Amino acid sequence: MRWVDRIGRRLKLRDIHVLMAVAQSGSMAKAARDLAVSQPVVSKTIGDLEHILGVQLFDRSPQGVCPTPFGRALLNRGVAAFDELRQGVKEIESLSDPTVGEVRIGATNPITEGLLPVVITRLWRQHPRLTIHVTQADAVALLQNLRERTVDFIVGRTPNLTAARDLSLEILFEEPQLVVAGPKNPLVRRRKIRLAELLDEPWILPPADAVAGALIAETFHAEGLALPQAVISCGTLPMTGVMLETGPFLAMFPRSLMKLAPKRYPLKVLPVELPNLSRPVGLVTLRNRTLLIGQ
Q1: Which residues pair with 146 in a beta bridge?
Q2: Which of the listed residues 76, 92, 160, 250 has the most CB atoms within 10 Å of its CB?
Q3: Which strand (E) or helix (H) includes residue 180?
């Protein structure tokens, strides 16, 4: 019998479940309490796994345990295995009743403020028995969530994914940037404004290491301009919107946000012609992973 076949016969899903619990809790004793079993059972399960595989899966210390590179490799595959089983159960549920199920969406801040509520409302009206979970975070955190399989897909702008061979990107639409200000800002009375004229205005900008921050910097650079100094660095749209409405500040918002959430953001779009740069919003999934959403 081949070595892989022996492993397949001796390695059980229950063992991987214990492994994941120990890694998550950082302690054999805590994992035992979480699993409602005795600590010797947990210790024996991990010891048996290490004996089967011939490697040490955890580093032990008085402070607890931490996965070794071998343990981390098995954990990554274990998460994928449990996710595939969950997908299998969802597929059975979908086949028996395609109007029932759940979907876990990861989205960036502008999408959850503008596009996503419209889409979810329409989807729920068509499938009222569908359960929808939404996770909002920045693009980098969402990509980690996707790889950890805590979301099914991501909607929003993401960093360059050319080198990410495990991910698939479907472009949904182009999302231009708009320069926005509060309704009482004197600039709203202008008929035409060049971006260069706004360099000395008080800008609210997202952090430079955020996807939105990089896009705004690219916009200025395309006009041969340096990015203005932000008087306020803020990556939160609701706070930025309040400050724009009540103060003399400027910011850049995506077009869909201004179109789909005008009551939430009663701001004015300034007549600034910006360079025609690609600003795609896409749907990101794990490659070769089928999505099962109520049809």
Answers
A1: none
A2: 250
A3: strand 177-181
Q: Which of 66, 21, 73 is nearest to 42 (CA)?
A: 21
Length in residues, the chain: 295
Say how far apart CA 30 and CA 24 lie, in whole Å: 9
Q: Which pTM value belongs to this model?
A: 0.65
In terms of domains, do 35 and 62 share one? yes
Tell me if 206 is assigned to some domain: yes
Q: List the structure tokens of 183.
A: 């309704």
**C-alpha to C-alpha distance for 264 and 113, rounded to whole angstroms:** 9
Residues 159 and 225 in one domain: no
Residue with tokens 């580093």: 59
The whole-angstrom separation of Cα 115 and Cα 173 is: 12
Residue 143 is part of which domain span? 97-174+282-286
Cα atoms in the 13 Å half-sphere on the side-chain side of 120: 18
Measured distance CA(23)–CA(227) in Å, rounded: 44
Compute the distance between CA of residue 227 and CA of residue 51 in angstroms, rounded to an integer.
Answer: 58
